[in-house]
Amino acid sequence: MKEKTVSEAVAHRRSTRIYDTQQPINSKVVQECIKHASLAPTSSNLQLWEFYHITSEDQKKLVAEACFNQPAAKTALQMVIPVVRRDLWHQRVAANIDFIKAGFVKNNMVDPKTQERALSYYQKIIPKLYKGGNPIRGFIMKLFMGLRGLSKTTYREVSASDLRVIGHKSTALASQNFMLSMAAQGYDTCPMEGFDSKKLKQILNLPTKAEISMVISCGIRKPEGIYGERFRIPFEEVYFEQ
Predict the structure, then answer these.
(1) What's the number of domains the chain is made of?
(2) Domain with 82 in it: what CATH number?
(3) What is Dmax (Cα atoms) for the chain?
(4) What is the pLDDT of residues 108-120, one digit of tens each?
(5) Torsion sign across C-alpha atoms 117, 118, 119, 121
(6) pTM (2 decimals)?
(7) pLDDT per position as a tens digit, 84-105
(8) Which residue range forms the structural domain that includes residue 56?
């Protein structure tokens, strides 16, 4: 099958509620699409995400039950579950620092001031921000930034709830990369938000601080699996040029 262009993939992608269980999909192709997901833009390049690829029949059944056995889950051939991992920020900061330092060596950059400027963001700013994941500390930082903003342009998204939104935004961008990549291969998907998050975390053996962004079912659509024509608000009502 010829891979679809971006425009073709966007047009092909529909939320599929019923899959053809007689048409298998290639796990390796799905895995490649997950790699495309990992190339999505992400806040501060922290990549605070993980992707759980569900292929076994037993695990699919458990996940479908946690998704209330809705048709998109029950008939799925495979599933992909993007998980937000804000609790891994220490490790991801360290990985970015190592990458930057390796770049200094590779490019023979020895100027200490240049190195300090390049590393300062990950060594000072990001740790200060992500320590705001503690609700009390985040609340204090929010108040401080609000006061600071009275006199100068200020970054204000510093509370625990702000960081949670940031983590889910990045993971959602990766999820869209995945779904469009799947569409380019002629495969179908459905992002689902209807699930028992506590039960699903137990199934995946996730730590307490991990958060499931969505469950994406995968397969090849049945004609009746697309519930009607695509509806969108007129473009003129959502587009504003300034």
Answers:
(1) 1
(2) 3.40.109.10
(3) 63
(4) 877 778 888 889 9
(5) positive
(6) 0.93
(7) 999 999 999 999 999 999 988 8
(8) 6-88+166-225
